[in-house]
Amino acid sequence: MYDFIYHRATSIGDAQSIFKNSEDPVYLAGGMTVLPTMKQRLANPSDVIDLGKIDGLTGVERDGDEIVVRAMTTHAAVAASSEVAAAIPALAALADSVGDPHVRNRGTIGGSIANNDPAADYPAALVGLGGTVVTTSKEVAADDFFTGMFETVLEPGELITAVRFPVPEAAHYMKFPNPASRYALVGVMVARTGGVVRVAVTGAGPCVFRIGEMEAALAANFRPEVIENIVVAADGLNSDIHAGSDYRAHLVGVMASRAVAACG
Q1: What is the architecture, at CATH level 2, of domain 5-50?
Q2: CB distance 245 to 232 below 8 Å
Q3: pLDDT score of 194
Q4: What number is the average pLDDT over the span 67-71?
Q5: Which of 175, 187, 198, 232 gets the highest tally of CB atoms within 10 A of its CB?
Q6: Mean pLDDT of 50-75
Q7: CATH assignment of 60-166?
Q8: What is the Cα–Cα distance from 101 to 183, expressed in whole angstroms?
Q9: Residue 132: beta bridge partners?
Q10: What secondary structure letter does DSSP report for 29?
């Protein structure tokens, strides 16, 4: 690990001021990505700004027809939330599937979303449920927030403060996990609200994406068999030592069908 200056921010304004006045700063939420990359000397920030002591950035609450999760809330807290379990059990189950107990008790929803790892679980939840990301300067629909591998619309210094998830009529997340990391080789969130169905895929491509053909078929008839013959193209999907693009394309269909079946 290279030398750096450590700061413990006392407020959002304090964190952003430090960021603005530092040469090459990075925010620290749960540290599940930042710290390993620094230890391996793959990152060399001049300043590390710890957000852990800022008031008002943790907690879960129901606000009308939405579940609001503040950015520094851990995965374990989302999984254990009675509000989440009652309103969106699929989101609670997704949070409980992230990594291992250490990751779930340290990692945060805001950090995961800001990092936008192509195999992370929360992007599928956000896009699948039609959520909204609230930052220090704007509110962004999930469909517009994730722009590419490890890329989002966040500007330098901008912080996520909360995430808003609309409560669906039915939803389920089905994941085929890497047995070591628990990252998704493929994860699919299916959600239905009224006549609208959303199908969001993580792990398969460089960034979370939706499958319009499946959404249209399920909106007309919400049964797993209506999407069994929909072919997902392997072009552009991830291919690595864990799974090839053809295998991931096949898994998308399998996980989507299982998610629909689990919705009941």
Answers
A1: 2-Layer Sandwich (3.30)
A2: no
A3: 87
A4: 98
A5: 187
A6: 97
A7: 3.30.465.10
A8: 14
A9: 141, 164
A10: S
